[in-house]
Every structure is written in C-alpha cells, then in structure tokens.
Amino acid sequence: QVQLVESGGGLVQAGGSLRLSCQASTRVISMYALAWFRQPPGKEREFVGVRRIAGRTTDYADSVKGRFTISGDSAKNTLYLQMNNLKPEDTAVYYCAAKTRGIGSQYDYWGQGTQVTVSL
To answer: From the CA atom positions of the chain, what is the Rg in Å?
Structure first.
C-alpha cells in the first residue's frame, strides 16, 4: 500500500531546469527500485530513468542521459529528478513508480503525475 506523489512540474523555457520530487508514503529502503517515466501528449508512456535502492545504481534513457539526474533522500522518503538543459521534446506528464521486487518484476506503484512544459 505504497502511495507516491509527484510535484515540481511547471512551465520552463528551453535550456532551463526543473527539479521534480516524488514523495513516498513508506520507507524507500523497503523498495527495490524507484523510477521515472513520462508520457508526452498523445503518445505512450516511456522510461526516463531508474534508481536501485540497495546498490544505489542508476540508469537512464538515451534521450535524457547527461541532462537528467536521479537522486534520493531516504530520510525524507523522497526521490528526485533533476532536469537540466530542457528541450521542447521533454514536454510530458512525468510519473514516478516503485517496485518492491527485483530484476524482472513489474512496477507495483505509480504516482498521479506532474506536468512539465518546455517552451521555445
């Protein structure tokens, strides 16, 4: 019964930055991984990046690698997505997700999403 709540979205000009937050209702240490996904308007949801809790490892989609950074604060039960050098193509609803099982398992919990809009 994990609840995830995203925040920090908004409107920003191309080249700007935003920091998204994902607040979890339980200890993040109890989860195997926390991830970010996004869904551009009229398109399917796509993977952005993931942070594995125990190993503190991260992985990113090629489209955001070098621009986006995932971090976490266990004490605050919060996951962050720092987005730099934003492009209009980054415009989407951003979601965080969590899973409590390891490799090969599905994501069990999803947030409601937060809108990010990047203008020219």
So the answer is: 13
